[in-house]
Design a protein that fits this description.
This protein is an alpha+beta fold. It contains ten helices and eight strands. It folds into two domains: 66 residues, Orthogonal Bundle (Arc Repressor Mutant, subunit A), CATH 1.10.10; 177 residues, GAF domain (Beta-Lactamase), CATH 3.30.450.
Amino acid sequence: MPAKEKKHEPRVNSIAKCLRILGSFTPQNAELSLAQLSRIHGMPKSTLLNMLRTMEDAGFLYKTRNSMNYRLGFKLMELSYNARASLSIVQYALPFMEDLQSQTGEIVYLTTHVDGRVLYLECIYPTKKSITYSTNGKTLPMHCTGCGKAMLAYMGEEEVDGIIAKWGLPRITSHTITSPTKLKKALAKYRELGYAIDNSEEGHDVRCIAMPIRSTDGHVAGALSISGSTMTMRDEKFPGYARLLAGACNFLSQYAQLFPAMQLRKSE
């Protein structure tokens, strides 16, 4: 389904501006000065300073001791914990994820999609963490991740086109698919297989196999993946891993409505 246009409804502009300010902070820009934020948002420093002080008082921002620049506040960590704790789908998924991890020895991820990106809800790691991995609450592009492509494969063409138009197909590694034509060809192959593969497209020397979780009416709610290094995630293992994933995904499809993607989905 294509994303429906949002209606212009009354809103509190000052709150909207504060939320955009919070969205300025990323892992690459974890610390920003008043001057930088003023340039990013095109706001007078005096107006911006009042907003920053309000968010600082509420715990959403704090100033570093040395530079006096701003960083995201720890109140956001508390809210993140509360949001995650309220996701009952994680509790249903955990036993299956633990079983998958035990049987494969690899990392297992539970994901959903929000606003055209992959949102990581939970992960189970091996005892020894030997490769780079994503963490709970992280978002990534859909076109370069196993879970993202598994979900894209079962979305309507207009919805896929909308996601590409919004986010593009940026190159993350030398293996990333950056052509819409090539991506759609890959998605068709994944529909035929029933699962998607990430061949070091988001992280170097990382491979994964992922399978979508769909509601009874076919809407994509989320995905499960098994991820590891290129040394351990060999092609001959994928059919067996696919069978393991299928059992877990089939069970979790009963609870598809509990995934954030389904909670945020507009009624038709």
